[in-house]
Amino acid sequence: MTDNVLQIEGASKDRGNLRVLDAVSLSVAPGERVALLGHNGAGKSTLIKAILGLITLDGGRIDVAGATPGSAPARAATAFLPEAVSFHPALTGREQMTLFSRLAGARADVSALLERVGLADALDRRIGTYSKGMRQRLGLAQVLLGRPRVALLDEPTSGLDPISRQDLYDIIDELSGQGTAVLIASHALTEVEARTDRIAILRRGVLVADDTLAGLSARAGLPIRLRLRASADADAVAARTGGRRINGASVEILCSPTEKMDALRRVAAMGEAVADIDIAPPRLEDLYRHYAQEVPQ
Ligand SMILES: Nc1ncnc2c1ncn2[C@@H]1O[C@H](COP(=O)(O)OP(=O)(O)OP(=O)(O)O)[C@@H](O)[C@H]1O
């Protein structure tokens, strides 16, 4: 038995001679927010299509809320927000959502739902007049409508302004808070770094990483950066700490997590020669580069 509402085991898919998914195993528990990262063509959309039951696998299996992808119970349990979400342009937001609500057999308070996603002022406007961000918000309202057990979001924030992105992640948090397992395919590293629980990285169809940010960081062994600001003589600070002078007054020290405290003690021993210090652990951007980089064939 497993608690995972989405369970992917050894999923493989061939397109012609190309293996676009290669024995991918990944699971998402209720309430978990997992980011699915990878270069263009890495296989993210293919995996999402397989979870939706839109394509069949050549190997392995996927289980969605205890059902086979594409089956009626799996479809009822799943919501999908595509990257380029499209609706009937002649309908208003309220009409479109009422239609979806009826189709889903849900008795949703459509006005409250549209208000929740920030479309209160556009309820009775035709969707054809909506901006991309407004259509994306409408798509998210559709995801919220069915209280899904699994939500698949493909590049949900692409083309959105920074505030809309924050709003969208607030709603994703709400989904996860109500127990929905959320899988977000994205290229927006800074956002997913802050707003997801686990990071999965595909490289040419192979899942090369699946861990928390801290776990990825520990396994990658990438250095921590200590950036010092010298009070006066940056060259002297660089020489005494074994660091590298990076501009007029700044010195950078790269050290492993196990060397960090020793390095900090050396800095502290320098007293007022060091005016300030910043400690920067590896960012998701560094980790992504580490895990997703192409290895020479
Ligand atoms: N219908 C198809 N026929 C043939 N090859 C396909 C088809 N769909 C996808 N592919 C190939 O499968 C591989 C994975 O594509 P996929 O769309 O899953 O990548 P992705 O990670 O979603 O990329 P992106 O970030 O660009 O959206 C690519 O090599 C792509 O060319």
TrEMBL record:
<keyword id="KW-0547">Nucleotide-binding</keyword>
<keyword id="KW-0813">Transport</keyword>
<feature type="domain" description="ABC transporter">
    <location>
        <begin position="6"/>
        <end position="229"/>
    </location>
</feature>
<keyword id="KW-0067">ATP-binding</keyword>
<dbReference type="GO" id="GO:0016887">
    <property type="term" value="F:ATP hydrolysis activity"/>
</dbReference>
<dbReference type="Pfam" id="PF00005">
    <property type="entry name" value="ABC_tran"/>
</dbReference>
<dbReference type="GO" id="GO:0005524">
    <property type="term" value="F:ATP binding"/>
</dbReference>
<dbReference type="InterPro" id="IPR027417">
    <property type="entry name" value="P-loop_NTPase"/>
</dbReference>
<dbReference type="InterPro" id="IPR051782">
    <property type="entry name" value="ABC_Transporter_VariousFunc"/>
</dbReference>
<dbReference type="InterPro" id="IPR003593">
    <property type="entry name" value="AAA+_ATPase"/>
</dbReference>
<protein>
    <submittedName>
        <fullName>ABC transporter ATP-binding protein</fullName>
    </submittedName>
</protein>
<dbReference type="InterPro" id="IPR003439">
    <property type="entry name" value="ABC_transporter-like_ATP-bd"/>
</dbReference>
<dbReference type="InterPro" id="IPR017871">
    <property type="entry name" value="ABC_transporter-like_CS"/>
</dbReference>
